[in-house]
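Example (one chain per record):
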Amino acid sequence: MTDASAEAGPVKVWDPFVRLYHWSQAALIAAAWITADEVKWLHMRLGYAVMVLVGLRVLWGFVGPRHARFGDFVRGPRAVLAYLGALLRGKERRYLGHNPAGGAMIVALLLVIAGTTITGWLQTTDAWFGSDAMEELHETLATLILVLVGFHVCGVIVESLRHRENLTWAMITGRKRAGDGNA
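Predicted structure:
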């Protein structure tokens, strides 16, 4: 980080939909976990809400503003591995939007969350009602969400410390420091 970038004012990065999606998704998934065994009707409704949110986020990934679009942050495996290697060497570049590892995490979370909601819904259909295999898959995917969230939180902490920037606060305000990132 250069002194000039520290002095630059904040710039808008995360639009209101991305921020609302992020925090709503976190709250709904937490509530779905809490209600999973005790309040089935609420758990199911929370799952449907999560399913709708994922669909909206996927749509927003194609039509939303620059840093919300998949084309801005989804990179191939080589770019993700190169970024992680640079991070381990302490030479990673700062991104104004998501870095390649963050982009990979978004894709992974969207896929696993979508799979969890779909397997939950399938258990309400005639074909899969009472299916132990479908229930097991649903529970495995739900657990995988927690694992991915753990990696996500660790990544946010590491990046916040490495770049001296509170990324959690940026996801609340929508703003990040201008400067040495890809503007």
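Caption: Confidence is low (pLDDT under 50) at residues 1-6.
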